[in-house]
Amino acid sequence: MTLPLTPDELLTTTRTVRKRLDLSRPVPLELIRACVEIALQAPSGSNEQSWHFMVVTDADKRAAVGEIYRQQVARYADSSRFAGRMFADRPERSAVQQRVGDSVLWLGEHMGRVPVLVIPCLRTGKPVPQGNQAGLWGSLLPAAWSYCLAARARGLATAWTTLHLGQEAEVARILGIPDGVHQGALLPTAYFTGTTFRPARREPVESVWHENTW
């Protein structure tokens, strides 16, 4: 059963959800499986389909991954890149960024309690190459985003996170992910509190539109 969303509504209301993740409501595993099945329809380079989805529901493993995420959030919060300190010279954006920063810190403390953690992975059988990796990750990230869209259509919320990759090898050991399989994101998945979501405020298209030349 999916929500009555138009394609445009689905695309503009699939948000990164943190504080509104419902930590108390279990998520049926068959719902996650349905979302992954949708994700597998995404494109991949040469139709190789070398993606894998690690679905973590075990409480101890979720807690262990959550602790790693908490450590990485703490490091991120102390860095100059922290979302909460961005655009300090633009009051209208600074207020939004501070709210984002607060929600990042909240998720850092609660990641291990989210009912389902999904980690999309890419099997290469070898280390990730140096240099431009767009072609490599282009065979995984569309599928990961399709998973998020499918979850939204089924009344679930997700957050696109990557901070855990600072300790990717440790997460791999916890979850038994073999060598040659690389993690692309960490997608906490849960029902959400409140009613629905609305499109976010963005910069006008004219600020990013370049026609024929930059």
Automatic annotation (TrEMBL):
Q: Which Gene3D superfamilies match?
A: NADH Oxidase
Does the record's keyword annotation contain Secreted?
no
User: Its domain of life?
Assistant: Bacteria
Q: Which UniProt keywords apply?
A: Oxidoreductase
Keyword Transport found? no
Q: Which InterPro entries match?
A: Nitroreductase, Nitroreductase-like
The record's listing under CDD domains reads: Nitro_FMN_reductase (cd02062)
**Sorted alphabetically, which Pfam families does this protein's record hold?**
Nitroreductase (PF00881)
User: What sequence ranges are listed for the domain Nitroreductase?
Assistant: 13-181
Give GO terms: molecular function aspect only.
Answer: oxidoreductase activity
Family statement: Belongs to the nitroreductase family.
- This chain belongs to the protein called Nitroreductase
Kindly list the organism's lineage: Bacteria, Bacillati, Actinomycetota, Actinomycetes, Micromonosporales
